Amino acid sequence: MERKQVLVPEADLARQRDFEEKIKAMFAGRQAHPVACVDTFGCQQNVADGQKLMGMLQDCGFTLTEEPAQADLVILNTCAVREHAEDRVFGNLGALTHAKKENPEMVIALCGCMAQESRVSERIKKSYPLVNLVFGPHALWKFPELLWQVYESRKRVFSVDDEHGTIAEGIPVVREKGVKAWVSIMYGCNNFCAYCIVPYVRGRERSRDPQCVLREVRELVEAGYKDITLLGQNVNSYGNDLGIGYDFADLLADVDKIPGEYLIRFISSHPKDATKKLFDTMARCPHVAKQLHLPVQSGNDRVLKEMNRRYTREKYLELINYAKSVMPGLVMTSDIIIGFPGETEEEAMDTVSLVEEVGFDALFTFIYSPRPGTKAAEMPDPATRAEKQKWFDKLLETQNAMSAKLHAAYIGKTVRALVDGESDDPAFPLTARTEGNRLVRLKGDKALIGQFIDVRITDSNTWALYGEPV
Predict the structure, then answer these.
(1) pLDDT of residue 3
(2) Sequence-ordered list of residues with C-beta below 8 angstroms from that of 190, at least 6 positions apart, any chain
């Protein structure tokens, strides 16, 4: 894919800024003060997209609220990865029916990965007339134009064509207050894992120019953000499409050169593209957190092949062992799917044995959820839900015991942690994160928020550490 086909021209972005001014002028002429709500579901990439939407909304003259009932414009920024997330979105649409009756001028928009699925957009078109605007991830950069079309035509607008993926630089962003920020370094995916809808809704991989990424990270550090996560569907393949001999490890090394007190994290990684060069770079770069989220999904080779993961159990363990050898104390997390179509109990227990062998600090675990349009959704799936639940419970039992044991080993130790917010526990009113991203419930004054401090760990459980400032 040539870069000229990927980057949105500056003239097209300037056109969007013109539409922002038109919308702002329209409301000024009505002496109106419009309010917008962006309700985001799903992954951190969706969070980053939502922050861009909020940036464009502010430039259109909107103020922002978290309460849909108070808004003149509600945007549901959706996720298509899990059936549960999809059900929540349709539930929220139902709830908005009452708000729209109270405020008939309310505009309701649906965007994100769900919107890009033709079956969803058709369902919205036929069964949810209250939705005024539907657009997919490819059209996010031209949101001001689409919104203007809704206001000008007073008709429903759908922008869900299967387009080439693009990169639009310079879109305004409204970031969360605090110490954490997210930076998208690439978009799309080329892997077509059998269970995953993402390549179909977010398009092929396309990497941002490294200088644009470095500039954004530098600006975040200068603005006081101290926990910055680089985002991509598969960050380990960053740069493959640039054609300049520059990969993700090179980007990490350059980010690490930015002066300041901060940590860099990244998600997600694909084991087939993880390299010793990456782990060596992590080991030597002080700003890069010694934390690795490397989704394995299954511990059985046949299931991995059916998933189209393109690595084996042995290859995964080889990667983990090397990473641990160059980064002693590395905090390891992973994603696992139990009950993939055709999986047997013995194969599911292979996954449990892998979890025991690796010694993950924590897992993100799922019972397989079929997504229409993926290869796995068409596969025979003889195991019952009850059987899958039994295997899943065994996985959780194993991991929870391991997490509790690993956390207990912190008791009595002093660790460096970033105090990132307030907690709902009066005995431990603050929250913090270790370099390995372990949650610490912390005693202390909220004046500590935003600081790296030394914390003595006094207690733990399966999910968190407890401590006090040294």
Answers:
(1) 46
(2) 199, 204, 205, 234, 237
CA 197, CA 191: separation in Å to the nearest integer? 11
**Token pair of 39 as six digits:** 């309700």
Q: Which amino acid is at 45?
A: Q
Residue of 30, 54, 122, 112 lying closest to 79 (CA atoms): 112
The answer to whether the CB of 172 falls within 8 A of the CB of 61 is no
Q: What is the pLDDT of residues 273-293, one digit of tens each?
A: 999 999 999 999 999 999 999
Name the DSSP class of 7: B
Whether the ω angle into residue 268 lies within 30 degrees of 0, i.e. cis, is yes
* Cβ–Cβ under 8 Å, residues 49 and 137: yes
* CA separation for the pair 267, 40 (Å, rounded): 18
H or E segment at 276?
A: helix 276-284
DSSP string, 177-245: SSSEEEEE-EE--S---TT--HHHHH-S-EEPPHHHHHHHHHHHHHTT--EEEEE-TTGGGTTTTT-SS
Euclidean distance between CA atoms 365 and 167, whole angstroms: 32
Domains of the chain with CATH codes: 3-159 (3.40.50.12160), 175-289 (3.30.750.210), 414-469 (2.40.50.140)
Q: Cβ of 461: how many Cβ atoms within 10 Å?
A: 13
Distance CA 427, CA 178 (A): 22
CB-CB contact of 332 with 361 (8 Å) = yes
What per-residue confidence (pLDDT) applies to 4?
Answer: 52
Query: Which tokens belong to 266?
Result: 């990244």
Bridging pattern class, strands 63-64 and 133-135: unpaired
Distant-in-sequence, close-in-space partners of 400: CB < 8 Å, separation ≥ 6: 462
Burial of residue 97 (CB within 10 Å: 0-12, 13-18, 19+) is: exposed
Least Cα distance to 26 among 101, 105, 99 occurs for 105
- Which residues of the chain are under the pLDDT cut of 50? 1-3
Please name the helix (run of DSSP H) or strand (run of DSSP E) that holds residue 366, with its range, or none. strand 362-367
Rounded to whole angstroms, how far apart are CA atoms 9 and 13?
7
How much is the pLDDT for 1? 39
